[in-house]
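Objective 1b. Sequence-to-structure analysis of Cytochrome bc1 complex cytochrome c subunit.
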Amino acid sequence: MTSDTPARRRARVFSRRRGAPSRARRRLGAAVRMIAALALAGGVYTAFAPGAFAEDTVQLSAVAQEGKALYDTSCITCHGRDGQGVEGRGPSLIGVGSASVEFQVGTGRMPMTRQEAQAEQKPPQFDDAQTEQLAQYVQELGGGPELPEGPLVEDIKTNPDALARGGELFRVNCTSCHGFGGGGGALSSGKFAPGLHDATAEQLYAAMLTGPQNMPVFGDNQLTPDQKKQIITYIQLQLQQEKDPGGLFNLGRYGPSTEGMAIFLVGITLLVFTSLWIAGKS
């Protein structure tokens, strides 16, 4: 075994002292490379940043520009500049899409006259063309769900099963709030599910797509576009057009229950008075 002589110890110390500057140089070199990389990244960002900011300025279509003019005079007070929303007044419109605007504005729910539990349907303040302009402006402003092109009601001649499938889907997904006959129903805290007897196909599809107020959103992963159309087909061809079997005084399409009850009560009352009249005569 080689002995650890004083000369060897001095040689090891001298070697460590000579290695120290080498490590310092490596650290300095790493720091220089890091600074150079940051400077390069900053230069690239500076070169391309003006183009990126220029792209943020959205070039609106002619229809959207008309919608912006309407928005600036009727909606900006509650929803803010560029649809960013105003705290305590109205939510942001970024990402709600044209479908939400066509439902809310087309049914007169927006603009709201006052803050309350639920925006009720009323005569719309904008015609169809103006509603389309507002919807296009919001769509180009922040994107979001859009109504599909083409008919929203299935042709039962070419697709005879659409009505039956739509009825099944309606009973599973809609009756808990809107009732079996589509007459609507009360919810909690002063809210309610509206009736469906005067709803258009576009309004029905937009409501399923956007989930206004208390209604859940039925995205394409919950209900496919074809299933949405089948539900609309059932509502429009069955609930809206077919005669109510309950007659004039109905209980939400439960059948002739009200007529039977009225006949029973009136008949019993007539029998009682007839019995009393006969007893009085005798």
